[in-house]
Amino acid sequence: MIETKLREYENFHIVLWLLKDACWLMEWKIEGIFMIVPTILAAFHITWLGRNNPANLLHNLAISSWICGNAVWMIGEFFFDDSFRPFAKVFFGIGFVFLGAYYFGVLPKEKRAR
């Protein structure tokens, strides 16, 4: 039951993310900026809910980092002549670090323990 609710929440989060990106694509600045808040809050909340499982934690941290980078990039495109892209790359890089930590650190240890 709880797992089903979490899955529904994660699916709703995808809707938020797609709405934010659709606003970006359509160049709806106010709506896009507005959609950053619920999208990032949901990402961090899902990350918090999955904190007890290393796979969920690290994947959700990567997703949260990706969305933050995505939001920074969007703000830069909307208001700062795309000058925020280097800052967005930092968030994307952090996301890859989280994934690397899982796939090259946690997962091999879990496989050896089995």
Would you kindly provide a written description of the structure presented here, covering whatever features stand out?
The chain is mainly α and 114 residues long. The chain has one domain. Helix content is 89%, strand content 0%. It is built from four helices and no strands. Helix 2 packs antiparallel against helix 3 and helix 3 packs antiparallel against helix 4. The radius of gyration is 16 Å and the shape is flat.
End-to-end Cα distance, whole Å, is 28 Å
Helix content: over 70%
Query: What is the β-strand count?
Result: 0
Helix and strand sequence: HHHH
The share of residues in extended strands comes to under 5%
User: How many domains?
Assistant: 1
Class computed from helices, strands and strand pairing:
mainly alpha
Number of helices: 4
| Biggest sheet record | none
Q: Categorize the overall geometry.
A: flat
Radius of gyration: 16 Å
Task: Indicate the low-confidence ranges by residue numbers.
Answer: none
Which whole number gives the mean pLDDT? Answer: 95
What's this entry about, in short?
The chain has four helices and no strands.
Topology, element by element:
Blueprint: H1 2-26, H2 29-49, H3 54-79, H4 85-113
What characteristics describe this protein?
89% helix, 114 residues, mainly alpha
